[in-house]
Amino acid sequence: MSFENPSREQIGDILAAAGNIAVVGLSDKTDRTSYMVAGAMQSRGYRIIPVNPSVDGEILGEKCYHTLAEIPEPVDIVNVFRRSEYCAAVAQEAADIGARVLWLQQGIISQEAADIAAEHGMIPIMDRCIKVEEAITMKGRSRV
Questions:
Q1: Beta strands 58-59; 101-104: pairing state
Q2: What residues contact residue 120 under an 8 Å CB cut-off, 6+ apart?
Q3: Distance separating alpha carbons of residues 36 and 41, to the nearest angstrom
């Protein structure tokens, strides 16, 4: 069976209900796509939780964690900026912390990660930019 992302309406519902977004692979370099996308989401009122094993301190004014397991609070969406071959392991970590959504950024596809997410009751989204989807689906909508 081929993978299919949720509908735009469903994605809008996911984003409307989301609070904490853990961003795996969030760079502390301001010229990186992950930094720009996470910053834009933060400016729209989402709580961004940086996850990067090589960064100590803060990114975007938030404490950076080395792993998802270190995050001491619930995570709604795990937004992934890692190459496809690393996504299955991230999906398992996301399942282990009880995340609701595994979101692989535009250009990232991993059927294995999507399968792990679905097996653990998460909603998998692949090859979509969360910032673009937020701009399209949340226009005129308020967050819960």
A1: unpaired
A2: 94, 95
A3: 9
Q: Are 56 and 64 in contact (CB under 8 A)?
A: yes
| CA–CA separation, 49 and 66 (whole Å) | 11
Q: Answer yes or no: are the C-beta atoms of 20 and 76 closer than 8 Å.
A: yes
- Give, in degrees to the nearest 5, the angle at Cα 134 between 130 and 136: 120
pLDDT per position as a tens digit, 70-123:
999 999 999 999 999 999 999 999 999 999 999 999 999 999 999 999 999 999
| Residue 99: burial class (beta carbons within 10 Å; 0-12, 13-18, 19+) | buried
Which tens digits make up the pLDDT trace of 2-20? 789 999 999 999 999 999 9
Report d(CA 72, CA 39) in Å as an integer: 21
Q: How many helices (H) and strands (E) does the chain have?
A: 5, 7
How far apart are alpha carbons 25 and 34 in whole angstroms?
Answer: 7
Give this prediction's pTM.
0.95
